[in-house]
Structures
1.
Amino acid sequence: MEATVNPNSNQLLKQIAKELYINNLELNKQRKRIQEVLFQVAEIIFSIDQKFKIVVFNSSAEIAFNISKEKAIGKHADEIINLISHKNAQPIKTNDYAFLKKDKVKKDFGDPIIVKKESDEGSYYKLNFNNITINSDTKECVVSLSDITDEIELDRKKDEFISIASHELKTPVTIIKTNLWMFEHTLKSKLNESQIRLLNETDEGIRRLSKIVSNLLDISRIEQGRLVIEKKETDINQLIEEVVASYKDLVHKKNLKLIYTKTRIKDTYTDRDKIVEILDNLISNGIKYTKQGHIKLKLSTSTKDIKISVSDTGPGIAKKDYPRLFQKFGRGNAGLKQQTLGASTGLGLYISKRMIEELGGKIGFSSELGKGSTFWFTIPKLYTN
Amino acid sequence: MNKKYKILIVEDEASLRFVYSEYLDMEGFEVIQAEDGREALDLVKTNPDIDVILLDLMIPKIDGIKVLEKIRSNPKNKSIKIFVMTVLSREKVIKEAFDLGADDYLIKDSLTPDQIKEEIISLLEPR
C-alpha cells in the first residue's frame, strides 16, 4: 500500500520547523546575552549544585580564584573558593551558607556577610547568595561576591577619626567640668539665683557634651573590635544602689521618683564598668522621657541569669519605632531634632546592646503607649572564674 | 583626717593641676606639684615624706607608666600610695599600672575634686 502525504500537512510541518528554528535562534541570542552579562560583570559570580559542585563560574571568579572556568566547573566549591568570615575570622565553607535560610547565616556571620579571601587579606567582599530551583529536582545556589574594600577602608578611617577626635576632646571637657565644679564649690554661697541657674545650666551642658564624647569613644571601640571586657567579682546589688544614688539630684530636679528595692543576691562575675554604663543609659533614658511618675528598678534571678529591668511611666514607644530602637542612631531623623532639644546621641541603646552581648547576656523591652516602657537586660550568673 | 598628708600632684595640664592643688590645699593637704615625669621623680627623691601621689599617665618627658615603675623600683618608696589618673576608663594601661604597683586609679573625667579627695582618704584611712 502506498503512503499518501497530505500536501497540507507537509506545509504545516515546514512552517513549524521554520518557527522552531527562529525561536531557537532567538533563545540562543538571549542565552549568549545573559552569559556575556554574567561573565563580564565586575562581581564574582559562581553557582553550585546540591553536591556543592561548581556549575557556573564567571570571568571575575576566574581572576579572583586564579583558575579557568573549564577547570573549576565540576569541582567541589571548597577546593577552589577559600573564604574567611570578617566577623569571627573563621573559614566560611560552602555548607555554612549554601541552601540554608538567610537569617540563620546572617546571625552567624553578620549582616551583610563580609568575607576575605584566604589568599588575599587586603580585600573585602560582601557575600550574597540565592537558593534557586531550576526544576523539581534541581536546586542551585548562586553566590556573588562584591568588592567592598574601599567602603571598609573608609569606615575604618571614620572610626579612627572619631577615636582621635574624642580622645582630644576628653581633656578640655575635663578641664571645663573640673573648673566649673571649683567655681560652684567656692562661690555658690555668694551667687544670686540667676547666676546659680546659669552655673547649673552650664554644668548640665558640659555633662551632656561629656556623655556624647564617651558614647563616640565607645562606638569607635566597638566598631574596631577594641572593646575590652574585664570581669571581676561584682556585688550587683551594691552597684545598682550606687548608680541610683548618683541620680538623686537629677530625679529631684525633675520631680520624679527613682525606686529600687534591694534584692539580695550573691556576687557575680562580670564587667562592673559595662554594667554601670548600661544602667546609666537605661535610667537616663527613663528620666529623659518621663514627665511625671517614677522610674523603677528591679533585680530578679533565674537558674542561669540575673535580670535587671528599668521601668518608667513615660509616653511609651510607638510600634513603628520598635525595629530601629537598638540600631546606631536609632532615633533616625526625629532623633536629630530631639537631640538639639536636649536629648543624647541616640547611641546609648546600641552601645548597651553591643556591650551586653559581649557579656553573654540579652537586652530587650516591652512598652505600652501612654503607660510606659520597661527595658531589661540579663547577665549570666557566674560565681567562679 | 587628723594628720596633714603630703601629696604630690603630677599633671601636665596647668588648669587641672591648679584646681586639684587649690582644692586639696583647702582641704588641709600639703601639696607639691610636678608638670612632667622628670620633675616628679626629682620631687620624690627630695621629699621622702610624701604620703600619696596623683600621677597622670600621659605626661611629657618621662611618661606616667615609666615614672610609676621607677618609683616602685626603689624600696624606700614602698609606703607611698600611688593613684594613676587618666581621662579614659578601661584602658589596658590601667591594668599595666596595677601590675607595676599602682594602688588605685582615678578617671578624671568622671570624678569631681571632692570625690577624688574621698578616694584618697579612703585609701589612706581604711575603715
Note: Chain B touches chain A at residues 13, 15-16, 19-20, 22-23, 87-92, 95, 108-109, 112-114 (CB under 8 Å).
2.
Amino acid sequence: MQTLSRRTLLQSGLATAAVLGGDIPAFLRRALADERLSPSIDDTIVVAIQLAGGNDGLNTVVPYENDIYQRNRPTLALKKKDVIPLQQGVGIPTRMRGIFDAMEQGGVAVVHAVGYPNPNGDHNRSMEIWQTAEPDNPHPETGWLGRAADHLVQSPTAGASPIPAASPSVFISEIATPLTVMGRASVCVKAAHPASLTLDASFGRPSIREGNREGAAGASESLVSDAIAASLRTAERIAEVAQEAKSGKISYPSTLFARRLEWTARLIRAELGIRIFCTEMGGSGPGSFDTHSLQANNHGELLGEFSDALAAFVADLARDRILERVIVYTYSEFGRTVRENGRRGTDHGSAGPIFLAGGGLRQNVFGEHPDLTEMENGGVKHDVDFRRLYATILERRLGIPSLPVLGASFEPLPIFA
Amino acid sequence: MTSHLGELHDREMPNVGTFPASSDDWQVYPQPLDRRDVAHLLRRVAANPTAEELDGFAGQTPDAVFQVLAGESSRYHEFEADLRPLEEAAVRSSAADAYRTWFMRRLVLSPCPLREWMTVFWLEYFGLGIDRVGDLALFDDVVRSMRRLALGDFHELLSAVLLHPAFLLNVRAPANYRSDPNERVGAAILRTCLGYREQDFSVQARELARAFSGRFINRGRLRVSTFERDTGEKAILGRCKAYEAEDIPRLIGEDARTVSWTVRRLYRWFGGDTRMPGDDFLKPPAERLRQTASVAETVRMILASRWFFSDTVRRQKLRRPLEFTAAILRALKGRVTLRTVTELTAMGQDILQPTTLDGWPDAGNYLSPPALIQRMNLVAKLVGADENFGGGLARGAVETWGDHLPNALTDVMTDQVIPADISARWEELCDRYAASSGRREQVAASMIYLLAVSPVFQTA
C-alpha cells in the first residue's frame, strides 16, 4: 500500500472525511489542525533494531523436521513441541508467541536467509558491513541510515535554513551510537530514555517562546530563535504523549529492550518529524546473542524478550494506524553454525533470518528456509542480499533514491503490497 | 571509494555569490579593541571570554591580543605541568574517557586557549579520531605534535601528522605493500589536505599511496621495510619524481589547492559555516600562508582584520555542542567532568572523534529540536548542584560577583546587551536577585539558565 504523506494531504486539501470516513488517524487529525507540524516533513519511518552478537537463525526460525538440523544439534535442536509452525516443517519457538500473533495479524514478517556474498566471520567487521552496506569498503565512515539522513537534511525540500526542522535520526540506547545512523552531514541524537528529551523541571520553560523576534541581533540568532521555539514545542509534544501513554492502553514488558521500544513508539506518536530510529538489544562488543556455550536457555530467553517487546510495540503503533507508515527491520552480524559445538553452543556462521514489522507487508514469510546441505562458513548460505532489503526500504518507504545511499543498484524485494 | 561520496559532499562549504567583500577587508582593524570586540574575538578563538580576558584585553590592539593568545606564558607551562601527568596516567591505563575529560579541561582552563582550540581545528582538519586510531598512546602523541605546531610551520605540521603512525591507523592502512599500494592513504590526504571531492581520484590517490609503501605499523610503532618501498617515479600533483613518504608533506604543503583549501577551513573555523565566500576573497590570507607557511601569521591576519570585526561576521557563527558547553564553563569557571563530556557525545559530538574524515557536521545540524532540548538539559545540570556535572556553577558565580552578578553575567555571556526576547524575564530575575538577601544560588541558576538557552548564547 502506498502511504499518503501528510504533505500530500495538506497540499491537496482533500476532504479528509471523504478519504478516510470518520476514522481519522491521530497523526492526520493533528496535521490538519496544527500548523506547528512542518508540511515539508513526510510521514514514513524506519526503525532499525540491532541484535548484537550474531543471532542463531536456525533456532529462531526453526526447521524442526529437518534431519540435518536435528543431527547437527543433538542438545540444541528444537522439537515439534517446542515450536509454533509457520510453514511446512518450519516454525518459531513457542517463546515467541507474541511475534507469531503479530504475524497472524499481518504486522510482522520474517525473511529467510538474509546475508551478503563472501560473509565475514568477525563480529566487528561483519556488523560494520550490515551497518554500512559497504562490504567492499574497508574503511567505511558512515552508515546506510546515516547517509539516508544526510539525504533528508540536504534535500531541496529540507529548506535553505542550516538548522534542520527536525532531527532526522535518533538512537535509543545507552551504548555508543552505532555506525548505522552515523552520517556525514546529519547528526543522530542519542536519547536513551524519556528523561533525555524531557525539559528539566527545576527551570521550567524559559519565557522566550513568546519573545520578540525583532530583537534578534542577526540572521543566525533569528534562526536559532525559531529552532528554540520548535524545541519547546517538541518538548511539550513529548510531554503530551507521555501523559497519553499513562492511560496504559498497551502494556509493555518491563525489560530494558521493551522500554526502549516503548520510548520509540512515544517519539513516533509525538510526530516530531524524526524519520529514522535505531535501537538495540544485546549491547555492544560481542553482544549477548554471541551464544558460544550453553545456548539453549540463554537464547530462548533472549528471543522471548525480543518477541514480547516487539509484539507490544506493533500493537501499540497499530492501535491508531501509525504502524501503516512504519517499517521495522532487525539485523545481526551473522547467523550461526549449523553444527553445535562441544560447549552446547554454536559458532559464527553466515546468513540468517530477519524480522520485519510494519504496515503493508504482503505476507508474513518471505522466501524459503535455506537448504542445510549448502553451507558457507559452517552456516546457511544467503538467499537474499540485505542491500536489496535496504533498497526496498529506501525506495518504497522513505522515498529516498537508493543508488546514492547504497552506491549500487539493488533489485527491490516484493515485500510491500 | 564508493561513488556516492561525491554527491553527498556537494553542499559542503558552498560559495555564496553575494558575499560582501572589499579591498579593505584584510586590512588590520584600525583601533584598540573595546569590550565588545574582545568578547567577539574570544568567542571565536576560545568559545567564550572569561571576565579576566574581557578586562585584560580591552584597550589593546588586535595584534597585541593575538600575541598573548598565541604565546606560551609561564602560566601556560605551569598549567601544562599540572595537567600533563593526568593525561599520561589516562594514556597508560588506556582510559579514553578520562583523556577526553582532560582534553576538555584544556579547552576551558588553558592560559593559552588559542593553541588548544587550534589543536581541535587540526584534529578536525585531518579527521583524526580516537576510535579510528584505536591506540590511545599514538593518538596522544599525534595530538601533542598538533598542539606544539598548532600555530607553527604548516609544512612541519603536515610532516608531523602525515608521517605519524596514527595517521595510517586512522585510515586503516597499517600495512603498505609495494605490490598493493593502499589507496586509502592517498585518498585521505587528498580529501583532508586538498579538499578533493571529485567522484574519482583513485589514480592520484594510488600514486600518493605508492610513496607510502614500505611503511607498516606494528605494535604501535612505525617500521619501514626497504624491500617493500616503491622507489619508482610517481606522478603527484603535476610533478613526477621518485617521491618517498618523507617528500609528500612538503609537496602537499606547497600545492596551491592545499593552501586554498586550508584557508577556507580556517575561514570556516573562525568565520562560521553558514556562509562561505569565493576563493577570490580568500586570496590574501591564502597568499600569506603560501609565502610564509606560518599558521600563526595566517590566523593573525584573519583575526586582526577589519573583516573579522565587521558586522558581517559578528554573531553569525552557530555554536556546536563543544563550543556551547565550553562557553558556559569558560564564562563561569565551571569544572569539567566526565559526565559533561559524555553528554557532548550524546548530543552527537564526540570531542576526540570527528564524525568522518571531513570533520563534524555543520553547526546547524546540532540545533535540531531534540538536540536543543538536550542542550537545555545540560545547562540545567551544569547550573544545578549535581557534583557529576561539577556542581556549584551558580554558587561560584554568586561568591565571585555578589551583588554585581546580573551585570557580570550580562557582560560575560551576552556582550552587554540583554536580548529583547528575554528582557522581561531577565528584569524579573534581576529584581528577585536583588531582593534575596540570603541564598541567592537558585535565582542565579535561573539567570544563568535563561541566558545560556537563549538564542544569543547559541551563536558566537
Note: The mean pLDDT of chain B is 91.
